[in-house]
Structures are given as C-alpha cells and as structure tokens.
Amino acid sequence: MQLIDGKATAKAIKAEIAEEVKNMLAAGKRPPHLAAVLVGHDGGSETYVAYKIKDCEEVGFRSSLVRFEDNVTETELLERIDRLNSDKELDGFIVQLPLPDHISAQKIIEAIDPAKDVDGFHPVNVGKMVIGLPSFTSATPMGIVELLKRYGIETSGKNCVIVGRSNIVGRPLSILMSQKSINATVTVAHSRTKELKRVCADADILIAALGAPEFIKSDMVKDGAVVIDVGTTRVKSNETKSGFRLKGDVDYGSVAPKCSFITPVPGGVGPMTRVSLLLNTLKAASG
Ligand code: GUN
Fold first, then answer.
1. Which of 111, 135, 165, 233 could lock onto 125 through a cystine, CB 3.0 to 4.6 A?
2. Minimal CA–CA distance to 231: which of 274, 270, 275, 191?
3. What does the pLDDT look like over 100-131, one tens digit per residue?
C-alpha cells in the first residue's frame, strides 16, 4: 500500500506557483490577487477562508477578505459582487459556501463574472469543462486529477466509482475522469444506488465524496484498488488545539491494507483542493 501524500504534493506545486509569481514581478507585473467573500461566522467556513488567505501569502499573491454578517441581504451581496466583477486590481474571487438560507447560492454564483470565477462554479465554466473547453474547474476535482497524474496512477480503461454527486465534487469529477486524457469508465453512485457494496467493490479507483464519516468499509473495496477519500467532516476532539478534527468518508484502518494507493485525511485531497484554487487564480491573472 502506498500513501498518496497530498500535503507534500501541494507543497511542491506551491513552490512552482511562487516561482511563477517571482517571474511575473520581475516582468513588471503585479502579483495575482484573490478575494474571498465570507458571510457570517460558521466555524468551518472561517477556517477554510483563513487557509485560503494564508495560502495566498505563502506564494506571494495579494489577498482580500470581504466580510458580511449573516443578516446581509441578497441585494447587498449582489451589489458587492458587481463591484468585485469590475475591480481591475482583482483577478478572481470566491464566495464561501454555504450561505444563509435567505440568500440563493445559485443566484450569487451566477452573478460572478465567469472570468473571475476561480471556484469554477458558474454554469458557463461548468458547461465549458463538460465539453473540454478551457475553463476554471472546481478545485477538489482538479486537485484529485492532479494527484492521480503526479503519482502515475493508471486510469485508462479503469473502472472508476465515485460515491456522491454534489455539484462541487462528484458530478464535475465524473466528467473529468471520463475525458479523453484520463479515459476511465465512470460510475456515479449515490443514496439511491442499489447494491452499493457490490458497485464499490468493482472499482479499480474508488472515490468517496459523500460526506459520511467512515462510510466506506473494507468489504466495499477490491484488493489493490486506488482509494481517494474526499470526506472532511469536522468532529469534536480534545486532542487538537482547535477542538475539532477531520474525519474522512473511508474507514482508513480497515481499508488501507487492501489498497494499492490511498489518500489519508487530513493530508490527502484537502491540501490539493487549496492549491487548485491558487492555480486557478494564477490562471485568471495570466489570462
Ligand atoms: N464550501 C465548501 N467548499 C467550498 C469551495 O470549494 N468553495 C466555496 N466557495 N465554498 C465552499
């Protein structure tokens, strides 16, 4: 069994990005600039946005944090997005999800200029990605594909089963995995899938992205499978400073010994998601 070290891979990519930023500065350009819009004080969202800002600092990007309380109106948020869209000093921005119930996340996403949509959530970017045109691709699927490539994992003709069909991970990943550069045979399994255990146990590459801690047990995994764990459920813990720790969707202890490759949680997909946002921002600044 080989561990797929997302943390080390992301660190190497960050060094490549930092080098690129140096080249931009040497050529007299300004550094790439990412803004994050954060509504309210959800603990998970606060942490993720803080990571995004820290990542920017580490590679030499400029970053901005735009904060609103959870009673902000949809109109106020849309007005701010308009200003971010037309800000010439800004290359890309994200609106951290989830948003409060009185705000339509879809309306907000569709208000973002696709050229600045470094999350790759706007329907224009999703549509371009589906037909293989240059686009911003959602960060987690992009990070997973990069991990498979950098670890030289054979994907052509392989049976890839993705458990979970979210707009952010499962669905876009299913499209990427079926593209000609990757050539996997893809199954998207979900809560209504019959005989889920049998479907999963047939996978050469099993990707768990359903958000249910330790859901994937060893009897759902074929010997020698590649297992990618996208789960990041925050559970209370007395062992960490933050009082929380992340749990994956895979029962790592029983599954790992059966795998050819497996991603840990934390330190697997998470760091690659973060670095993909930086890559998209660099692309926005260069394009
Ligand atoms: N919430 C959970 N994941 C994401 C993400 O990738 N982008 C944004 N904007 N919000 C999220």
1. 135
2. 270
3. 999 999 999 999 999 999 999 999 999 999 99
* 139 ligand 1 Cβ < 6 A: yes
- Is residue 52 annotated as a catalytic residue, yes or no? yes
Partnered with residue 244 across adjacent β-strands are 236
Residue 83 neighbours by CB under 8 Å, 6+ apart = none
Known catalytic residue: 70? no
pTM above 0.90, yes or no: yes
| Residue 12 exposed, middle or buried by CB count within 10 Å (0-12, 13-18, 19+) | exposed
The closest alpha carbon to 103, from 68, 72, 66, belongs to: 72
Q: How far apart are the first and last CA of the chain?
A: 40
Which amino acid residue places its CA nearest to atom 2 of ligand 1?
A: 97
Regarding the beta carbon of 105 and ligand 1, being less than 6 Å apart is answered no
CA of 105 to the centre of ligand 1 (A): 11
Q: What is the pLDDT of residues 262-285, one digit of tens each?
A: 999 999 999 999 999 999 999 999
Domains of the chain: 28-113 (3.40.50.10860), 139-269 (3.40.50.720)
Atom of ligand 1 nearest to the CA of 273: 6
Atom in ligand 1 nearest the alpha carbon of residue 98:
1
Q: What is the residue with the minimal CA distance to atom 9 of ligand 1?
A: 96
Q: Which of 96, 229, 247, 251 is catalytic?
A: 96
